[in-house]
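Hello,

Our lab assistant flagged a job as stuck in the queue for most of the afternoon. It eventually completed. Since we weren't sure the result was trustworthy after the delay, we are filing this so someone can double-check. Below is the sequence as submitted and the structure that was eventually returned. Let us know if re-running is recommended.
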Amino acid sequence: MAKAKKLRLTPLEAPYQTSKTKENIVKITSVNTGKALKIFCLILSLSAMSLLLGVTGCSTPPPPPAPIESGHQQSAGQKTDDQNTSTRVNAALAQDIEYKFDRVNVETFNGTVQLSGFVSSIDQKNRAGDIAEKVEGAKQVRDNITVQVSGN
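-- returned structure --
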């Protein structure tokens, strides 16, 4: 009978010679792959979260738009004068014994007093305009008050 040839294995092939060794290698490889996959997912999640927070969390709101005043600007003194005029008009409307003007708004810009809001009669509207015209500092009065008719 012919002698069986012995296979010579290189040192790299030696661990793969038995099936038990092959099973151990597969188990070790799958465990290492699972751990690596978990670490990769963790790193990916943390990176995505920090990117998302970095993009949205650190933004500041835009500055509020400048008031539109037909291109006119006021000095600090003019603003103070207009505030005082508005205060005087509001006080004069509050002191009127004939009508209550609690739903009338007063704004002043460069001495022009603007009245807005609601009253219940045309007489009240006219009276508010007359009162505002007599106040010191009111150069002009724009009466934009709306007469609200009650539905009785």
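-- support follow-up --
The delay was a queue issue, not a problem with the job. The result is valid. Residues 19-56 form the longest helix (38 residues). Residues 76-147 form a domain with the Histidine-containing Protein; Chain: A; fold (CATH 3.30.1340.30).
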